[in-house]
Amino acid sequence: MKIERIEVVNLRFDYPGGTGFRYAGGTVTSRVTSLVLVHTDGLHTGLGAAYSHPDLVKPIVERHLAPHLVGRDPGEIEDIWALTYELTRWYGRKGAAISALGGIDIALWDLRGKAAGKPVYELLGSERAYSPAYASGLFWTDDVTELEEEAGRHVDRGFRRVKMRLGRDPAYDLAAVDAAGRGAGAGNEVIVDGSHRYSLERAESMGNELAARGVYWFEEPFPPEEIDAYVALRPRIAVPLAAGENDFGVQGFREMIRAGALDVVQPDACRAGGITECLRIGRMANEAGLGVATHTWSDAVALVANAHLVAALPNGLTVEVDQTGSPFIEELLTEPLRIDDGKLDLGDAPGLGIELDHEVVSRLADAYGDSMKDGNYSDLIFGKEYYTVAPPFE
Q: Rounded to an integer, what distance in angstroms lies between the CA atom of residue 37 and that of residue 360?
Protein backbone atom coordinates (compact mmCIF):
# COMPACT_ATOMS: atom_id res chain seq x y z
CA MET A 1 0.00 0.00 0.00
CA LYS A 2 1.34 3.43 -1.01
CA ILE A 3 0.20 6.99 -0.40
CA GLU A 4 -1.42 8.28 -3.59
CA ARG A 5 -2.52 11.77 -2.53
CA ILE A 6 -3.38 13.78 0.58
CA GLU A 7 -6.41 16.03 0.70
CA VAL A 8 -7.57 18.71 3.14
CA VAL A 9 -11.29 19.47 3.32
CA ASN A 10 -12.15 22.62 5.27
CA LEU A 11 -15.56 22.73 6.93
CA ARG A 12 -17.72 25.54 8.30
CA PHE A 13 -20.90 25.66 10.35
CA ASP A 14 -22.93 28.77 11.27
CA TYR A 15 -25.00 28.70 14.43
CA PRO A 16 -28.64 29.56 13.69
CA GLY A 17 -29.07 33.31 13.54
CA GLY A 18 -25.31 33.74 13.90
CA THR A 19 -25.66 33.36 17.66
CA GLY A 20 -24.12 30.38 19.39
CA PHE A 21 -22.73 30.31 22.91
CA ARG A 22 -21.31 33.22 24.91
CA TYR A 23 -18.02 33.22 26.84
CA ALA A 24 -15.10 35.50 27.69
CA GLY A 25 -14.23 35.84 24.00
CA GLY A 26 -17.67 37.12 23.01
CA THR A 27 -20.55 35.43 21.20
CA VAL A 28 -19.55 32.59 18.92
CA THR A 29 -21.17 32.79 15.49
CA SER A 30 -19.60 29.85 13.62
CA ARG A 31 -17.19 26.93 13.77
CA VAL A 32 -14.48 25.63 11.45
CA THR A 33 -12.30 22.54 11.23
CA SER A 34 -10.10 20.72 8.69
CA LEU A 35 -10.35 17.07 7.71
CA VAL A 36 -7.18 15.41 6.40
CA LEU A 37 -7.70 12.46 4.05
CA VAL A 38 -4.77 10.21 3.10
CA HIS A 39 -5.73 8.35 -0.07
CA THR A 40 -3.82 5.20 -1.01
CA ASP A 41 -3.52 2.95 -4.03
CA GLY A 42 -5.31 0.25 -2.04
CA LEU A 43 -8.78 -0.10 -0.59
CA HIS A 44 -8.36 2.22 2.36
CA THR A 45 -8.40 5.97 2.99
CA GLY A 46 -7.04 7.29 6.27
CA LEU A 47 -9.11 9.84 8.20
CA GLY A 48 -7.43 12.62 10.17
CA ALA A 49 -8.18 16.12 11.39
CA ALA A 50 -6.29 19.32 12.16
CA TYR A 51 -7.64 22.17 14.28
CA SER A 52 -5.97 25.43 13.32
CA HIS A 53 -6.40 28.21 10.77
CA PRO A 54 -7.88 26.24 7.84
CA ASP A 55 -6.36 28.51 5.19
CA LEU A 56 -2.93 27.64 6.61
CA VAL A 57 -3.53 23.92 7.16
CA LYS A 58 -4.50 23.29 3.53
CA PRO A 59 -1.32 24.62 1.83
CA ILE A 60 0.95 23.16 4.52
CA VAL A 61 -0.48 19.69 3.93
CA GLU A 62 -1.24 19.75 0.22
CA ARG A 63 1.56 21.93 -1.16
CA HIS A 64 4.42 21.43 1.30
CA LEU A 65 4.15 18.00 2.94
CA ALA A 66 2.15 15.85 0.52
CA PRO A 67 4.75 15.94 -2.30
CA HIS A 68 7.30 14.45 0.13
CA LEU A 69 4.91 11.63 1.12
CA VAL A 70 3.29 10.50 -2.12
CA GLY A 71 4.58 7.03 -2.99
CA ARG A 72 5.62 6.20 0.56
CA ASP A 73 4.34 3.32 2.67
CA PRO A 74 1.77 4.86 5.08
CA GLY A 75 2.77 2.29 7.69
CA GLU A 76 6.06 4.14 8.25
CA ILE A 77 4.33 6.41 10.74
CA GLU A 78 7.20 7.28 13.03
CA ASP A 79 9.57 8.00 10.12
CA ILE A 80 6.96 10.13 8.39
CA TRP A 81 6.33 12.08 11.59
CA ALA A 82 10.04 12.81 11.93
CA LEU A 83 10.26 13.90 8.28
CA THR A 84 7.25 16.21 8.41
CA TYR A 85 8.47 17.75 11.64
CA GLU A 86 11.90 18.39 10.11
CA LEU A 87 10.31 19.91 7.02
CA THR A 88 8.23 22.36 9.07
CA ARG A 89 10.58 23.02 11.98
CA TRP A 90 11.72 26.45 10.85
CA TYR A 91 8.16 27.79 10.65
CA GLY A 92 6.42 25.23 12.85
CA ARG A 93 6.98 23.65 16.28
CA LYS A 94 3.94 25.53 17.65
CA GLY A 95 0.77 26.44 15.82
CA ALA A 96 -0.56 25.58 12.38
CA ALA A 97 2.35 23.48 11.10
CA ILE A 98 2.45 20.91 13.90
CA SER A 99 -1.35 20.77 13.90
CA ALA A 100 -1.26 20.09 10.15
CA LEU A 101 1.30 17.30 10.36
CA GLY A 102 -0.70 15.89 13.27
CA GLY A 103 -3.72 15.62 10.98
CA ILE A 104 -1.67 13.48 8.62
CA ASP A 105 -0.41 11.40 11.54
CA ILE A 106 -3.95 10.63 12.75
CA ALA A 107 -4.88 9.47 9.26
CA LEU A 108 -1.82 7.21 9.10
CA TRP A 109 -2.79 5.56 12.39
CA ASP A 110 -6.27 5.00 10.97
CA LEU A 111 -4.67 3.35 7.94
CA ARG A 112 -2.35 1.22 10.09
CA GLY A 113 -5.33 -0.10 12.01
CA LYS A 114 -7.34 -0.77 8.85
CA ALA A 115 -4.41 -2.65 7.30
CA ALA A 116 -3.91 -4.73 10.46
CA GLY A 117 -7.62 -5.29 11.05
CA LYS A 118 -7.30 -3.82 14.56
CA PRO A 119 -8.61 -0.70 16.32
CA VAL A 120 -6.05 1.99 17.09
CA TYR A 121 -6.33 1.52 20.86
CA GLU A 122 -5.31 -2.12 20.37
CA LEU A 123 -2.34 -1.08 18.24
CA LEU A 124 -1.35 1.16 21.15
CA GLY A 125 -1.35 -1.81 23.53
CA SER A 126 -4.76 -1.52 25.19
CA GLU A 127 -7.75 -3.80 25.39
CA ARG A 128 -10.00 -1.05 26.78
CA ALA A 129 -12.61 -0.49 24.06
CA TYR A 130 -13.91 2.74 25.57
CA SER A 131 -12.79 6.08 26.89
CA PRO A 132 -14.33 7.98 29.79
CA ALA A 133 -15.94 11.10 28.33
CA TYR A 134 -17.36 14.37 29.63
CA ALA A 135 -19.89 16.84 28.28
CA SER A 136 -18.37 20.21 27.43
CA GLY A 137 -20.73 23.19 27.42
CA LEU A 138 -22.35 25.26 30.18
CA PHE A 139 -21.29 28.67 28.86
CA TRP A 140 -22.08 32.11 30.22
CA THR A 141 -25.74 32.87 30.79
CA ASP A 142 -27.70 35.56 32.63
CA ASP A 143 -29.82 32.95 34.40
CA VAL A 144 -27.84 30.22 36.16
CA THR A 145 -30.93 28.00 36.40
CA GLU A 146 -30.28 27.38 32.69
CA LEU A 147 -26.95 25.82 33.68
CA GLU A 148 -28.70 23.54 36.15
CA GLU A 149 -31.10 22.39 33.43
CA GLU A 150 -28.33 21.94 30.87
CA ALA A 151 -26.18 19.86 33.24
CA GLY A 152 -29.17 17.64 33.87
CA ARG A 153 -29.67 17.11 30.13
CA HIS A 154 -26.05 16.02 29.72
CA VAL A 155 -26.43 13.48 32.51
CA ASP A 156 -29.63 12.22 30.90
CA ARG A 157 -27.62 11.63 27.70
CA GLY A 158 -25.23 9.34 29.53
CA PHE A 159 -22.47 11.65 30.78
CA ARG A 160 -21.18 11.51 34.34
CA ARG A 161 -19.01 14.66 34.15
CA VAL A 162 -19.81 18.11 32.78
CA LYS A 163 -17.52 21.07 32.09
CA MET A 164 -18.46 24.72 32.41
CA ARG A 165 -16.83 28.08 31.64
CA LEU A 166 -16.24 30.66 34.36
CA GLY A 167 -14.23 33.89 34.60
CA ARG A 168 -17.20 36.27 34.41
CA ASP A 169 -17.17 37.70 37.94
CA PRO A 170 -16.71 36.14 41.41
CA ALA A 171 -20.38 36.12 42.39
CA TYR A 172 -21.52 34.66 39.07
CA ASP A 173 -18.79 32.04 39.06
CA LEU A 174 -19.75 30.52 42.38
CA ALA A 175 -23.47 30.66 41.65
CA ALA A 176 -22.85 28.99 38.28
CA VAL A 177 -20.77 26.19 39.81
CA ASP A 178 -23.45 25.51 42.41
CA ALA A 179 -26.15 25.45 39.71
CA ALA A 180 -24.18 23.02 37.54
CA GLY A 181 -23.55 20.82 40.57
CA ARG A 182 -27.26 20.67 41.35
CA GLY A 183 -28.04 19.80 37.75
CA ALA A 184 -25.39 17.11 37.50
CA GLY A 185 -26.64 15.53 40.69
CA ALA A 186 -25.10 13.32 43.34
CA GLY A 187 -22.43 10.93 42.14
CA ASN A 188 -21.59 13.02 39.06
CA GLU A 189 -18.83 15.60 38.71
CA VAL A 190 -18.29 19.17 37.54
CA ILE A 191 -15.19 20.43 35.73
CA VAL A 192 -14.37 24.15 35.67
CA ASP A 193 -12.62 26.12 32.89
CA GLY A 194 -11.28 29.48 34.11
CA SER A 195 -10.98 30.99 30.60
CA HIS A 196 -7.57 32.64 31.38
CA ARG A 197 -9.38 35.29 33.46
CA TYR A 198 -7.95 35.03 36.98
CA SER A 199 -5.19 36.74 38.89
CA LEU A 200 -3.12 34.49 41.14
CA GLU A 201 -4.99 35.71 44.22
CA ARG A 202 -8.40 35.23 42.64
CA ALA A 203 -7.42 31.78 41.36
CA GLU A 204 -6.30 30.73 44.83
CA SER A 205 -9.59 31.87 46.35
CA MET A 206 -11.63 30.20 43.62
CA GLY A 207 -9.53 27.04 43.76
CA ASN A 208 -10.32 26.60 47.44
CA GLU A 209 -14.01 27.14 46.77
CA LEU A 210 -13.92 24.57 43.99
CA ALA A 211 -12.09 22.06 46.16
CA ALA A 212 -14.76 22.43 48.85
CA ARG A 213 -17.38 21.62 46.20
CA GLY A 214 -15.53 18.53 44.96
CA VAL A 215 -14.83 19.92 41.48
CA TYR A 216 -12.92 17.41 39.34
CA TRP A 217 -10.34 19.89 38.06
CA PHE A 218 -9.70 23.63 37.63
CA GLU A 219 -8.65 24.35 34.03
CA GLU A 220 -6.68 27.28 32.62
CA PRO A 221 -7.18 30.02 35.21
CA PHE A 222 -4.26 31.77 33.44
CA PRO A 223 -3.09 32.16 29.83
CA PRO A 224 -0.81 29.34 28.67
CA GLU A 225 2.29 31.55 28.72
CA GLU A 226 1.97 32.20 32.47
CA ILE A 227 3.72 29.01 33.60
CA ASP A 228 5.08 30.66 36.75
CA ALA A 229 1.54 31.46 37.85
CA TYR A 230 0.54 27.81 37.47
CA VAL A 231 3.60 26.76 39.45
CA ALA A 232 2.74 29.23 42.22
CA LEU A 233 -0.95 28.27 42.35
CA ARG A 234 -0.68 24.49 42.32
CA PRO A 235 0.53 23.98 45.94
CA ARG A 236 -1.96 26.54 47.25
CA ILE A 237 -5.13 24.74 46.13
CA ALA A 238 -6.56 21.29 46.77
CA VAL A 239 -8.37 20.95 43.43
CA PRO A 240 -6.32 19.45 40.54
CA LEU A 241 -4.94 22.03 38.13
CA ALA A 242 -5.24 21.36 34.37
CA ALA A 243 -4.02 22.94 31.12
CA GLY A 244 -2.46 22.11 27.78
CA GLU A 245 -5.03 22.66 25.04
CA ASN A 246 -3.06 25.73 23.94
CA ASP A 247 0.30 24.01 23.76
CA PHE A 248 2.01 22.01 21.05
CA GLY A 249 4.41 19.11 20.87
CA VAL A 250 6.58 17.38 23.42
CA GLN A 251 8.72 20.44 23.99
CA GLY A 252 5.79 22.55 25.17
CA PHE A 253 4.43 19.90 27.52
CA ARG A 254 7.90 19.00 28.79
CA GLU A 255 8.31 22.60 29.95
CA MET A 256 5.07 22.52 31.96
CA ILE A 257 5.72 19.06 33.39
CA ARG A 258 9.30 19.84 34.43
CA ALA A 259 8.13 23.06 36.09
CA GLY A 260 5.59 21.16 38.21
CA ALA A 261 2.82 23.37 36.84
CA LEU A 262 -0.03 20.87 36.48
CA ASP A 263 -1.85 17.83 37.79
CA VAL A 264 -3.67 17.08 34.53
CA VAL A 265 -2.22 17.64 31.04
CA GLN A 266 -4.55 18.26 28.09
CA PRO A 267 -2.94 17.56 24.72
CA ASP A 268 -5.09 17.33 21.60
CA ALA A 269 -4.03 15.02 18.77
CA CYS A 270 -5.40 17.39 16.13
CA ARG A 271 -3.44 20.34 17.57
CA ALA A 272 -0.35 19.02 19.36
CA GLY A 273 1.15 16.78 16.66
CA GLY A 274 -1.08 13.78 16.16
CA ILE A 275 -1.40 10.45 17.94
CA THR A 276 2.34 9.78 17.71
CA GLU A 277 3.32 12.95 19.55
CA CYS A 278 0.46 12.83 22.05
CA LEU A 279 1.44 9.28 22.93
CA ARG A 280 4.90 10.61 23.84
CA ILE A 281 3.31 13.42 25.85
CA GLY A 282 1.06 10.96 27.67
CA ARG A 283 3.97 8.71 28.60
CA MET A 284 5.97 11.68 29.82
CA ALA A 285 3.03 12.73 31.98
CA ASN A 286 2.71 9.20 33.33
CA GLU A 287 6.36 9.18 34.38
CA ALA A 288 5.66 12.38 36.32
CA GLY A 289 2.58 10.91 37.98
CA LEU A 290 0.15 13.15 36.08
CA GLY A 291 -3.17 12.37 34.43
CA VAL A 292 -4.06 12.96 30.77
CA ALA A 293 -7.42 14.37 29.71
CA THR A 294 -7.38 15.13 26.00
CA HIS A 295 -8.89 18.35 24.74
CA THR A 296 -11.19 18.24 21.71
CA TRP A 297 -13.03 21.25 20.31
CA SER A 298 -13.20 20.59 16.60
CA ASP A 299 -14.78 17.47 15.10
CA ALA A 300 -15.68 13.83 15.62
CA VAL A 301 -12.60 12.49 13.83
CA ALA A 302 -10.31 14.31 16.25
CA LEU A 303 -12.53 13.34 19.17
CA VAL A 304 -12.35 9.64 18.36
CA ALA A 305 -8.57 9.83 17.82
CA ASN A 306 -8.20 11.43 21.24
CA ALA A 307 -10.48 8.82 22.78
CA HIS A 308 -8.26 6.02 21.44
CA LEU A 309 -5.31 7.75 23.13
CA VAL A 310 -7.11 8.01 26.47
CA ALA A 311 -8.18 4.37 26.22
CA ALA A 312 -4.58 3.30 25.62
CA LEU A 313 -2.79 5.40 28.24
CA PRO A 314 -2.58 4.01 31.80
CA ASN A 315 -2.98 7.59 33.04
CA GLY A 316 -5.76 8.44 30.57
CA LEU A 317 -8.60 10.12 32.47
CA THR A 318 -11.23 11.34 30.03
CA VAL A 319 -11.94 12.93 26.64
CA GLU A 320 -13.89 16.12 25.93
CA VAL A 321 -17.15 15.99 23.94
CA ASP A 322 -18.48 19.30 22.58
CA GLN A 323 -22.15 19.72 23.46
CA THR A 324 -22.88 23.04 21.74
CA GLY A 325 -24.91 21.58 18.87
CA SER A 326 -22.05 21.40 16.37
CA PRO A 327 -22.66 19.14 13.35
CA PHE A 328 -18.91 18.47 13.32
CA ILE A 329 -19.62 16.28 16.37
CA GLU A 330 -23.23 15.24 15.91
CA GLU A 331 -23.60 14.68 12.14
CA LEU A 332 -20.17 14.12 10.61
CA LEU A 333 -20.07 10.33 11.06
CA THR A 334 -22.35 7.69 9.56
CA GLU A 335 -22.82 6.22 13.05
CA PRO A 336 -23.36 8.63 15.95
CA LEU A 337 -21.06 8.59 18.95
CA ARG A 338 -22.27 6.19 21.63
CA ILE A 339 -21.98 7.35 25.24
CA ASP A 340 -23.30 5.36 28.15
CA ASP A 341 -22.55 5.64 31.86
CA GLY A 342 -19.86 8.23 31.19
CA LYS A 343 -18.01 6.15 28.58
CA LEU A 344 -17.51 6.67 24.85
CA ASP A 345 -17.75 3.30 23.12
CA LEU A 346 -14.91 2.76 20.62
CA GLY A 347 -16.06 -0.63 19.38
CA ASP A 348 -13.76 -3.12 17.69
CA ALA A 349 -13.73 -1.93 14.07
CA PRO A 350 -10.29 -1.43 12.50
CA GLY A 351 -8.46 1.89 12.67
CA LEU A 352 -10.40 4.71 14.26
CA GLY A 353 -13.53 2.65 13.63
CA ILE A 354 -15.48 5.48 11.99
CA GLU A 355 -16.78 6.50 8.55
CA LEU A 356 -17.62 9.98 7.28
CA ASP A 357 -21.10 10.92 6.14
CA HIS A 358 -20.07 12.32 2.76
CA GLU A 359 -23.29 14.28 2.23
CA VAL A 360 -22.67 16.14 5.49
CA VAL A 361 -19.02 16.68 4.59
CA SER A 362 -20.02 18.10 1.21
CA ARG A 363 -22.58 20.45 2.76
CA LEU A 364 -20.15 21.79 5.36
CA ALA A 365 -17.33 22.09 2.81
CA ASP A 366 -19.60 24.15 0.55
CA ALA A 367 -20.39 26.38 3.52
CA TYR A 368 -16.68 27.00 4.02
CA GLY A 369 -16.03 27.99 0.41
CA ASP A 370 -12.62 29.09 -0.78
CA SER A 371 -11.39 30.96 2.31
CA MET A 372 -12.18 32.00 5.86
CA LYS A 373 -15.09 34.39 6.27
CA ASP A 374 -15.38 36.91 9.08
CA GLY A 375 -16.88 35.64 12.32
CA ASN A 376 -16.21 34.52 15.89
CA TYR A 377 -15.11 30.89 15.74
CA SER A 378 -14.42 30.40 19.46
CA ASP A 379 -10.65 30.04 19.04
CA LEU A 380 -10.32 32.16 15.89
CA ILE A 381 -11.85 35.61 15.41
CA PHE A 382 -11.92 37.24 11.98
CA GLY A 383 -13.28 40.73 11.47
CA LYS A 384 -12.94 43.67 13.83
CA GLU A 385 -16.65 43.75 14.58
CA TYR A 386 -16.50 40.22 16.03
CA TYR A 387 -13.69 40.96 18.49
CA THR A 388 -14.96 41.89 21.93
CA VAL A 389 -13.15 42.11 25.25
CA ALA A 390 -14.99 40.95 28.37
CA PRO A 391 -15.09 43.40 31.29
CA PRO A 392 -12.31 42.97 33.86
CA PHE A 393 -12.82 40.10 36.29
CA GLU A 394 -13.56 41.88 39.58
A: 15
Model pTM? 0.98
CB 96 within 8 A of CB 52: yes
> What are the distances in angstroms from CA 387 to CA 219, 291, 394?
23, 34, 21
pLDDT digits (tens, 9 = 90+) for 320-369: 999 999 999 999 999 999 999 999 999 999 999 999 999 999 999 999 99
Q: Which residues pair with 130 in a beta bridge?
A: 345
Q: Which domains does the chain have, with CATH numbers?
A: 3-117+357-379 (3.30.390.10), 121-345 (3.20.20.120)
Q: What is the DSSP string of 111-151?
A: HHHHHHTSBHHHHTT----EEEEEEE-----S-THHHHHHH
Q: What is the pLDDT of residues 202-224, one digit of tens each?
A: 999 999 999 999 999 999 999 99
Strand partners, 124: none
Q: Which residues pair with 16 in a beta bridge?
A: none
| Residues 77-112: b if buried by 16+ CB within 10 A, e if exposed | beebbebbbebbeeebeeebbbbbbbbbbbbbbbbb
